[in-house]
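Crash report, auto-generated. Payload:
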Amino acid sequence: MVASSTPQPLLRMEGITKSFGNVQVLHGVDLEVGRGEVLGLLGENGAGKSTLLNILNGVLQRDTGAIHLDGEPVEFAGPKQAQDAGLAFIHQELSVLPYLTVAENIFIGRLPRRKGAPWLVDWAACYRQAGEILERLAVKIDPRTIVGRLGTAEQELVEIAKALSMNARIITMDEPTASLTEAEIERLFTLMRALKADGVSVLYVSHRLHEVAEICDRATILRDGKIVNTVDAKTTSSHTLATMMVGRELSELFPKTEHERGRETLRVSNLSTVKLKDVSLSAHQGEILGIAGLVGSGRTELARAIFGADPITAGEIFVEGEKVTVDSPGTAIRHGIGLVPEDRKLQGAVLSMSNAHNISLACMSKVSRLGQLDRGAEKQAAKKLVADLQVFPPRAEQETGRLSGGNQQKVVLAKWLFAGSKILIVDEPTRGVDVGARAAIHGLLNDLAGQGATIIIISSDLPEVMGMSDRILVMHEGRISGELARKDFSEEAIVMYASGLEPIKEGSNA
Amino acid sequence: MSTLTETPASPREASKPKAGRRLPIQGQQLALVVLIALLAGGFASQSPEFLSTGSIENLLRSASMYGIVGLGLTIVIISTGSLGGIDLSVGSMMALGGAIGAGLLGTAFSAANPVKLPAVVAVLIALVVTGVLGSISGLLIARLKLAPFAVTLGMMSVARGLTYLMIAWAIGSANTAGITFSDPLFDWFGLTNYGPIPAITVLFVVLAALIAFMLKATPFGRSLFVLGGNADNARLAGINVRRTIVIVFAISGLLAGLGGLILTGRLSSATPLAATGYELDVIMVAVIGGTSLAGGRGSILGTVLAAIMVSEINTGLDMMNVESFYQYLIKGTILVLAVVLDKVYQARSSRKLAAASA
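Recovered output after restart:
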């Protein structure tokens, strides 16, 4: 552990715990930020970073623990109280109002009023004060510019200016560089150094480990809702950070069954979309192909592109060796491709419909004759599938929205079984699903592969993707940044590839 | 009547096992039946003629006309409600349908009559034109992702303009008198009875049954409910969203054209200002019938009952000699109340869903 740079830290969080329902997300987290310090907060998706930051900024309430600011205990009933206390939160998704000017954005909700006529805005003062703040940041933006005309990086600077105008002492930045170019990142870092010099502290969240070394003083690593360690960011290698982020044993057993890998069923070559750059891959009969990567790395976009849900700008898709044009999900379904989407409630299942209607949805022609649905046959088929997949309650006419998350997911899977998909892409198949249903879904995917289907599994849950897959492709910023065969699987390697780095060869094959 | 009951939510019933026999209609529809009876009693107590054969026949004609147009609007709202789906052009489309049908007959009294077509052909052309205009609205909404409100408001004006042009061309002058004519086919629309039942009421029931069957028992009908619930969901299930939107707006246009031919038959004339403001009545028919403006939920039986109720209100208020400005006030209030009820229903069902999946 590295001690904080000042004897009295500006911010101290102690023993923070938080549960959502039965799930404990934070287990007694301690965190300190010194005055004028940039503290990196690292952790995998789901480690509890967002929850911690939301608690700090008054968005969520902690269950137990204490927050001290300048040595004084503080309570934030809401984001407004946190703001008043000098905390600012810059989200990954910027919250600027694109049709207003820079100055209006900075002072929104507290525009300066005219003396003697407080119902009128003092625009002169508004633009002058905004100009002063921007000057302090050495930012050359006219406060009268409409924010929508600025680039993402400049919009982020506007958010920082807004934070400073509220006299923020601690600015939380959640992945601020996610959509910035190299030059813009440099500019942001210059600004952050200026903030430090002014005594402003920054809590910096990023998945880009090399940035942490460049800008942060110390780094705190969070894993499974607990603090693993706090280290000197300058002297700790990216590899060590990655190991600390993931360093856990496979805590759950995955009943990986070995299948004969058959012929190639899907080949994607040089596929590009708005979010994907030159992605190539192939998948085979009986194979479970894992796709790992951070949220936003293009995993979901890849699934949607193969499924015809997003337009393709370049590249080719081959199914069973034949070039196909997948221009809509309907075409993909006819080529035997199925997609279990990430958002089960809005994209996977139609919650207001019955299980039977959901199951037949992607292939209603199978239970239709002369353009008329045979509802008896539809119900019979659904009954068999809900029984086979152990959906509870096992009723074809049950409204899907009334099932638990895991059972809803089984219904979505049943839809593709009914449609007879040969290539099934599952995106976060067990997110928000209880342990029992997880095992059942994993078992089902294994069975399908055993029967000769091709399964592509996308997951943020590294134990899951490593436990299930025969091979893993790792994505980073819209590209495939690495490929691992089962014998080479390691969380460190995946995290390094996912961060855009090369894993360190340790001669493990030797 | 139970074959007309259409709702995708049969599981809602299944999830609530009931002891004993289920009524053939439930909830909102039962409430509509009760309201229709109460209104009939109320109007009859004010003016006893309300229950005369002639009055009931008139009411059925009016209900059939609004109902036929309402069927189209019902499927528009069911399938595109989540995109803000509405068709404001139905009133003008009625006027246009009637003007084309009457204008092509060449039998207008003391007019130019530039063409003389058989009535069947004239009617078919009217239906094709209004169907095509509806599909143009659908294309703009589906392809360019424009707001249905704006597109159909534009179409409302375009169709009204075409109505003026059609009538001016048919009578050879640009006055607003319209086309007055006589024709056996139009008499069928406006005057013919089978026993005590108007011919168009039979037509209405047949069309309602067909659309109810389509919604309940065909893949296309099923896809309308999925699309109305969530367009993204529908697309990922392989449904051709664009084509579906074009088809429902084409059907809405065509049924509005048919409603306009009926109106023209009843009046034996087509005027440029015909059916002005009728979109309000037609939207009332769909919404009071239980079609959710949020999409994904609706009922043809509800639309049929609401058509009867709305016509009952129109006829009853007319008979009581209520001034038209009060009529507007009353109808507007009823429409807003129906939308409030829909909102309450949505809030309740989403709470139930949240509670069930928690």
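Post-recovery validation: Residues 27-32+48-348 of chain B form a domain with the ABC transporter involved in vitamin B12 uptake, BtuC fold (CATH 1.10.3470).
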